[in-house]
Known about the structure:
The chain has ten helices and ten strands. 32% of the residues lie in helices and 21% in strands. The radius of gyration is 19 Å and the shape is globular. Strand 2 and strand 3 form a beta hairpin. By secondary structure, the chain is an alpha+beta fold. The two termini are 18 Å apart. Helix 3 packs across helix 6. It has one domain: Jelly Rolls. The strands form two sheets. Strands 1-8-5-10-4-3-2 form a seven-stranded antiparallel sheet. A three-stranded antiparallel sheet has the order 7-6-9, with no helix packed on it.
Amino acid sequence: MKLTKRVKHIYNRVDYSTSKKIFGNTAGARNNLQGAFKKSKTSEPSNPQIKELLENQFVILGQSFSEETMEKIREKYNECIENKNSSYVTSEYDGEIYCRHVSEPEKNISELKDIITSEIASIVKGYYDGNFQIRRLDLWRNYHVPKELAKSKETFSNYWHCDARSTEFLKMFILVSNVLEDDGPFHIMSQKRTKELIKKGFGTRENYEIPLDEMEDSNHVVKGVGNSGTVFLANTELCLHRAGIPEKGHLRDVIQVVFAPSEKPFSENWFEDFSQDEKYRLGTSYNKNE
């Protein structure tokens, strides 16, 4: 029997509040439990980057690709992102577009096959203490949003939140082009700081119930600035985060990869038979085999 809207609403509220009280995030209690069961028990790693990732649930790897590799990706990306036949709008208001995604990037940008280097694969495997797979591959462009609109409407995940997905998922963000403060970089805080703010009374992404200067304390917020090819790894279910808003005349281009645990070893030829997990995108299910 399908649940009524009212019952679903009550369930979601209980799931949300339980997640904050027990797990110190807003991903949802069900998602925390599911993630805990799917991730392996991690042994003590020797790699300092894996240690940092496990401690904070995010890490900056720095520039992980050559300029030649990024130039090839950037060239194809720029051909696709403003073309209606190879991109789609994901945020629009009053006729103005604020975010576009590349359609079927695995088909339009073959150079993406090179984004999983041996270093990145080693760190992700260390995070899971076991095998991993790629579930999603997304590329998008964020545009400037007028301040008044940004205050009244969330245009592209620019309010502080934790993703409502199973906590098994780990994301990799790659800067397609150079990103400075004016380009609206990704903002994130550690899992520890997230728990502190939840304990202090963080409400929802629509109403933090905490002063903005405390939410955005520069001692705790890390911004994803860097040159083209800079890589960030983050568990966005466990860490409060948000998108920055580019200043007028600026934009931000990003590659996002979603990792998950796997029973099979990761193949260097992953790109040949890769398929997007649409259930992850839609949020209808977190089990690819369902």
